[in-house]
Specification:
Elements lengths: L13 E3 L12 H16 L8 E5 L6 E5 L12 E5 L11 E3 L2 H10 L5 E5 L4 H4 L23 E2 L2 H4 L10 H8 L7 E4 L3 E6 L2 H24 L7 H11 L4 H15 L1
Parallel strand pairs: 7-8
Antiparallel strand pairs: 1-5, 2-3, 2-6, 3-4, 6-9, 8-9
Helix pairs in contact: 1-6, 1-8, 2-5
The protein binds manganese (II) ion.
Amino acid sequence: MCATDHGGQHHPIAVAVDDTAGPSAPPSREMIEELVSANHILFDQGVVDAFGHISVRHDKRPDRFLLARNMAPSQVTAEDIVEFTLDGEAVNAGGRKVYLERFIHAEIFRRRTDVAAIVHSHSHSIVPLSVVKGMRLRAMFHMAGFVGQGAPVFEIREAGGDATDLLISNGHLGRALAENFDGHDIVLMRGHGSTVVGGSIKQAVYRAVYAELNARYQLQAMQLGEVTYLTEGESRSCVAHIEAQVHRPWEMWLEQARARRR
Ligand code: MN
């Protein structure tokens, strides 16, 4: 999230909400633990800092998802995971503050039934590519085929006018963002960051890490000359073959994140 209060807007970046729907069958313990690990990895890999978040669809209730309460990802524990409805309403927050931008997750899970996990971040090399006219993040190396032939850039002014704080702070903005995911697994958000989706927590984390790397390499390569990008066929082939191995970096990143937390 980015916190600004210009333009006459003063909504807080974290809000306490009432639990409006009852809790469902508890999600699997393994899923919670994996979500906690994902928070730590994303911080350790530099994808998120104090802001940014990852969610997972509830394994027993596809109309629910799990997301940490409002806090820095590096500090998340299993006790901090909160269940939400697809309207972005907390089920068991118990008065704890939740992320204002939970509507990103709610509306993408609603629209993309194939998506199991979502990462929203402001990772450093992505932001420049979100603000230059005519510029698109585009797959330019084999680890980032999922980026495809040009990631859409969500322009919040089209849905929210020209004086928002750029945050996806309600269902209306969440739905406008989610529409960009038809046929795409990563969407840049102008002047803000990006959101990436996957079929599992591990895949979403993998994509968030390699989207940042693709952006960094693209910025570097563009300074040297004309860039040769992956073709659509190469992109698809790389996704099919390389993303079958997302468990390999996951284990390494997890070990590294744990070592550095000690
Ligand atoms: Mn944000």
